[in-house]
Amino acid sequence: MADTFSLQRVLETFRSSLSENKEVYIKYYIAGWQELVSFMNSLGNVFSFISKDVVSKIQILENFLSGENGSYYVTIQSMVKYELDNDLVDLTKRGSHPESGCRTLLRLHRALLWLELFLERLRTSTEDGKTSVMCSDAYNESLAQHHPWLIRKAVGVAFCALPGRDTFFNVMNAGDHTQVVALLGESLPLIAEVYQITEDLYVKNHLLELP
Ligand SMILES: CCCCCCCCCCCCC/C=C/[C@@H](O)[C@H](COP(=O)(O)O)NC(=O)CCCCCCCCCCCCCCC
Q: How many whole angstroms separate alpha carbon 156 and alpha carbon 133?
């Protein structure tokens, strides 16, 4: 993985995560998150409590993927089927499977909605738009509903440390502002599609409230 973040690469990883018959490859899904983590790290240490959590979730999924049952973890669809068929998911309260693939991925899935909402705000923002406001509005509409008070507070503090819109656009390494906006326009439908496919699968299997 290259050191500098590029929005283009995030787009490519999420594109690779969709199979021809619209299944989602876990390998690329977590690679996309890895790229986003490296971006967040470049923004400063205030975000390290967030990136640590994402990294540990990526690690859990990576371990499943490279473990002896790895072939069942190739796509989100195969993972859900395998873990449910074999009673490997704590469905109502945490018990013998506190770190199932299904519940771990659900956390990232919820965060993907935040990302989608945030990037859409960024894409349509005007020059005087404040990234901290875009971030927290997107957060309140998505992830916040799943976080306890203390985390919401900490996240609020982190948002205040976000760089302005200009810096944000620059660190995305996707050219000038117009090009970034165009690339965001190209990325968002893909991210939304990955999100929706996962959402439908989780709804169908009653997995949206996994502890
Ligand atoms: C660049 C701005 C970064 C702002 C990030 C906003 C999202 C806020 C997420 C806050 C997470 C707080 C840390 C703790 C979380 C956990 O408690 C909680 C529950 O887990 P548990 O059930 O195992 O206990 N974990 C989660 O909900 C997963 C959170 C994942 C957050 C991912 C955020 C990644 C942000 C990537 C930034 C990329 C910017 C995009 C620019 C192109």
A: 10
pLDDT tens across 141-156, in order? Answer: 999 999 999 999 999 9
State yes or no: ipTM above 0.90.
Answer: yes
What is the rounded distance in angstroms from the CA atom of residue 141 to the CA atom of residue 47? 20
Question: If you measure from the C-alpha of residue 2 to the centroid of ligand 1, how many angstroms do you get, rounded to a whole number?
Answer: 22
- Beta-carbon-side half-sphere exposure of residue 102 (alpha carbons within 13 Å): 30
**Residues in contact with ligand 1 (CB, 6 Å cut-off):** 7, 36, 39-40, 43, 47, 49-50, 53-54, 107, 110-111, 114, 135, 139, 143, 151, 155, 162, 172
Q: pLDDT tens across 77-116, in order?
A: 999 999 999 999 999 999 999 999 999 999 999 999 999 9
Q: How many CB atoms lie within 10 A of CB 211?
A: 12
Domains and CATH numbers, the chain: 7-204 (1.10.3520.10)
pTM: 0.96
